Amino acid sequence: MDALILLIPIALFLGLLGLAGFLWALRAGQYDDLDGAAARILFDDTPPRKAP
Amino acid sequence: MFKKFSHGPIERNVLLLGVLTLITVSLIEQALAAEPDILAARVSLTTRRLTLRWRGPAARGNELVAVLARLGFRVAPWSPACLRAADDAEGRALLRALGIAAFGSMNVMLVSVAVWAGGDMGDATRTLMHGLAMLIALPVVLAAGLPFYRSAWAALRAGRLNMDMAVSLGVLATTAMSVSETLRGGAFTWFDGATTLLALLLAGRVLNHGGRRRARQASAQLLALQQGSATRLNPDGSSQTLPLEAFLPGQRILVAAGEALHLDAVLEDATALLDTATITGESLPRPYTQGDTLPAGATNMGAPFVAQVSATLAEGSLAAMARLLEQAEQSRSRITTLADRAAAIYIPAAHAIAVATFLGWWLLGGETWQAALVPAVAALIITCPCGLAIAVPAVQVVAAGALFRQGVLLARPDALERLASADHVVLDKTGTLTQGRPTLLPGPHPEAALRQAAGLAAASRHPLARALHRACPDATLADGVREFPGQGLQAPGMRLGSAQFLGLDQQDDGMALWFTAPGHPPLCFRFTDALRADAPAAIAALQAQGLSLEILSGDAPPAVAAVAATLGLEHFTGGVTPQGKAARLQALAATGHHPLMIGDGSNDAAALAMAHVSACPAGSTELAQSAADILLTAEGLAPIPAAIATARRAQRIARQNIALSLAYNALAVPLAVAGLVTPLLAAAVMASSSLIVILNALRAGRPAWTR
Predict the structure, then answer these.
(1) Which residues contact B542 (CB under 8 A, 6 or more apart)?
(2) ipTM of model over 0.90
(3) Please, what's the largest Cα pairwise distance for chain B?
């Protein structure tokens, strides 16, 4: 019984962490171009970008 | 993210036209990155948007576009319509809701499974567990269910019924009853069912939305096609590049070699040579003389020419074509899908059962109204259209995936259903049945002469010259070649072109090139627009599937008759205008046929949009691609009969699925009405019916030989 008091909050916290990560990725536009994201891994490395 | 640069650098979005693939995207990005002042160039493959950021004057943008043009890419301004289509707020909202619902259902399960498994659990612990589940489920149901509540509310206000009504009512009633049970310390709560249902339905919704988004983008790109610029010649002799909307009838425009003419115009120069294949379906460029009307959408294959604009963009023939497309889209959206028809019968029935259960237990059974609510809500959950909502989308997703691997892309979500019911096929000729480009016929021409002629031909963009060069691709470009547009090519001592150009007294049907060089007599190269290699097999397969066929082409009747004879088709019509094609499709629909139109040119676009279902082969014009339901990405016509077979099979499985989930409900509903359903049983029924429906749907994607 005591274990539950500890384990359930931990499980919920980890779950919430995952949800927060997902919501952040969604807001940052990482789901906007799924076709492109799938393809980009095959690109050659682009030359290093000059500092703006 | 971009705020840091908000002062110096400039950011612009443009829409990339043409075929975008992995390789071209990487090519574009690298070519632009090589420019010294570019800070970032990134292509979004999904929306075809190129985002450019650079330091320096705004006018530099035109030079960057020129870099793209050298790579063979045209761009269009990023119009508000494109922005609306690409700014996928609805898709993001659905995805966010799915994330929340998935999180909620998994964590509620964590608690619920403990309650299900813990038969020896004390009452206090069980109530604590239920309280915990409520704490997780309440915000989740409120947040993740929003897309359904909104749609249900909108339907309710318009006085209609939809699936979302049933979903909203089921989820909200379940949650409300579970909250009351938790507070009363009851034995059962249903939070797990409510959140899992939301997650499952949202997953289906997200998949479906992807298909609809693609269709919306296609139409936005069609609008973007009309936006562009042209060069205006001012009365004082200066020239100016202006957006197409700015042109008025009577103004003079300069059309460069290789440039597309976007406006209807009348030729002012003596001659011009235009490729009208996409507008009329003719296989060869057509010469025009002074005073001729030039069609918008043609490409200049000859020398630069001056023409006078005859209609503004909004009144021109391209805009008329777009309006025709729009009308056709609207008339087609009235076709109701299988799922809609099922929902219209199912929802009232399900709700009537729930209400009858409540009234029966309350008034006849002598229960309190709280107790009577339990079996009523159980009936609502059992009848919640979970299996039904997944039954058809699952089949479509599986079948669309299988078709995609065969080189068939479904551009509209309901294309599969319409393809399954097609009973008549209307085929375009040039570019659809044929390859749409001339190929050299074998003949008695010596290898050396062919090589010499190909060396001359390498200098020209004329389709016949290019065909000749393709026949001997390693020929080196001859020195000092001059092109006489519409007539032929000349190099020291050698001439290649029409019989007239060479001064020969020969019959010439347009599909031949003559060649003279010192040392041997004039030589004739004959060409033909060859049939696609798999056309006869595809036609036979379509006939075997019980479809009737006809050819509808804009090309000259004799050429159409020849192709029809080769393929053994009895019904064909040549010399048909784009309006004529659309009218023929309309007539077919009026007589109760369900025509499948296959075409590749802009002249087919209206007919494609008007047809019951339409497809266009690989390499079609952008206008045709945005009008068609189905795009072939593999060469040839063979995927069409294969797609029809898959579609028919998918439709059969979708019907089976609907029947299966209805049968499931018919078994479970009496139990729910009798008050015998526990949350565990409800979850088991829901999950197993969804699972069976999904497993059955997987059969739709299996290749024929495993069936």
Answers:
(1) B425, B549, B640, B641, B644
(2) no
(3) 112
> Active-site residue B428, yes or no?
yes
**Separation of alpha carbons B678 and B416, rounded Å:** 39
User: Cα–Cα distance between B602 and B570 in angstroms, integer?
Assistant: 25
For residue A33, the chain B residue with the least C-alpha distance is B46
Of B67-81, B450-464, B616-630, the one with minimum mean pLDDT is: B67-81
d(CA A13, CA B375): 35
- Kindly give, in sequence order, each residue whose CB lies less than 8 Å from that of residue B612, ignoring residues fewer than 6 positions away: B418, B421, B422, B589, B593, B594, B595, B596
Q: Which two tokens stand for residue B124?
A: 């206090």
Strand intervals (E) in B129-183: none
Residues of B at the A interface, defined by Cβ within 8 angstroms: 4-5, 9, 22, 25-26, 29-30, 33-34, 39-40, 43-47, 55, 88, 92, 95-96, 99-100, 103, 106-107, 110-111, 125, 132, 136
Burial of B266 (0-12, 13-18, 19+ CB in 10 A): middle
Task: Give the pair of three-digit tokens for residue B70.
Answer: 């050298």
CA B281 to chain centre: 22
Yes or no, beta carbons of A19 and B26 under 8 Å apart: no
Q: What is the mean pLDDT of chain B?
A: 80
The answer to whether A15 contacts chain B (CB < 8 Å) is yes
User: Which tens digits make up the pLDDT trace of B44-72?
Assistant: 877 778 888 888 787 777 788 888 877 77
Q: Which is it for strands B305-309 and B286-289: parallel, antiparallel or unpaired?
A: unpaired
